[in-house]
Amino acid sequence: MSCKCPTHYKEFVVKLLTDLFSTDYGLMSVAVIAFMLGMAVWFRMFFKRHMDEDAKQASLNKGVSL
C-alpha cells in the first residue's frame, strides 16, 4: 500500500522533522511542548487532589452549623 501524497509533500514533512529535531530552535520547541504537557498533567493532578480533599472536608462538616 503506497501513499498517494505528492513527492513535494513528503519532502516538506521530512524537512520539517529534520528542522524540529536537529536545530536549536526546533529542539527548544520540543522542550517547551514537553514542559507544557508535563505542566498540564501536574495541574490536573494538583487540582483534582485539592477538589477531592475539599469535597471530603465539606461532607465531614455537612452536619456542623456555624
What does the secondary structure layout of this molecule look like, with pairings?
Layout: H1 7-22, H2 24-60
Description:
There is one protein chain. With 66 residues, the chain is mainly α. The chain has a domain at 1-30. It contains two helices and no strands. It has helices at residues 7-22, 24-60. The longest helix has 37 residues, at 24-60. The protein is elongated, with a radius of gyration of 24 Å. The N and C termini lie far apart (72 Å). The relative contact order is 0.06. The mean pLDDT is 90.
Tell me, briefly, the overall form: elongated
Radius of gyration based on Cα positions: 24 Å
Please count the beta strands (DSSP E, at least 2 residues each): 0
Q: Could you state the order of secondary-structure elements as H and E?
A: HH
Distance N to C terminus: 72 Å
Can you count the helices? 2
Brief summary:
This protein has helices at about 5-20, 25-60.
Key structural traits:
mainly alpha; elongated; 0% strand; 66 residues; 80% helix
